[in-house]
Amino acid sequence: MSFTTIKRESTLEVIVQQIKDQIKKGILKPGEKLPSERELASLLGVSRTSVREAIKALSFSGYLEVIQGKGTYVLEMSTKYDEIVNFFSGFSNYSLDYLMEARIMLEGEFARLAALNASQEEIDLIEKIFNEIDSSEDLNSFVVKDLEFHLTIAKATHNPFMDGLMK
C-alpha cells in the first residue's frame, strides 16, 4: 500500500494565502490600507502574532509595505514579479540554501558572459539601473528595478538561451 502525506498548512500559510488571494482578485487594491493587526486577527480568528508574521512575509515578498506609524499598504504588483513568486512557491519543499546556490551559480555566469559580450550602451544601461536600485525608496520599486537589472544583464550576454532562461 502506498500513502502520501497530507500537508497540514500552518496558520501563517493560511493567512498569507488569504491576503494574496484578496490582492490577486482585486478585492485589496494597490495603495489600499489594510485593517490593523488587531482587526485582522479578529476577522481571521487568529493571534496578532500570526498576523504580524504574515505581514512580514508578504512585505518581504513585495505584496505589502509597512509604513511605521501609518499602517500596512498593498503594493502595485509587477506581473513578472508575481510570476516569479508563483514559480518559486512550487519549490517550497526545497531548502533555501539550494535556491541560493543555484542563483549564485547562474548569476555569476550571466555576469561573466555579459562582461564579455555587452556593448558600451548595454553596460551604461546596466549601471544606470543599478544606481536606480540603489536609490529605490520602497520595496516595490526595488523589486521592479532588481528584476529589470537581471533581465538587462541576461540580454547583454547575447545568448538567446540565457536571455530566455531569465525571462
Structure commentary:
Keywords: DNA-binding, Transcription, Transcription regulation. It comes from marine sediment metagenome. Pfam families: FCD, GntR. InterPro entries: GntR_C (IPR011711), TF_FadR/GntR_C (IPR008920), Tscrpt_reg_HTH_GntR (IPR000524), WH-like_DNA-bd_sf (IPR036388), WH_DNA-bd_sf (IPR036390). With 167 residues, the chain is mostly helical. It folds into two domains: 11-74, Winged helix-like DNA-binding domain superfamily/Winged helix DNA-binding domain (Arc Repressor Mutant, subunit A); 79-166, GntR ligand-binding domain-like (Four Helix Bundle (Hemerythrin (Met), subunit A)), CATH 1.20.120. Helix content is 65%, strand content 5%. A two-stranded antiparallel sheet has the order 1-2. The chain starts with 10 loop residues before the first helix and ends with a helix. The mean pLDDT is 81.
Annotation keywords:
Arc Repressor Mutant, subunit A, single chain, two-stranded antiparallel sheet, 5% strand, 167 residues, 2 domains, mainly alpha, Four Helix Bundle (Hemerythrin (Met), subunit A)
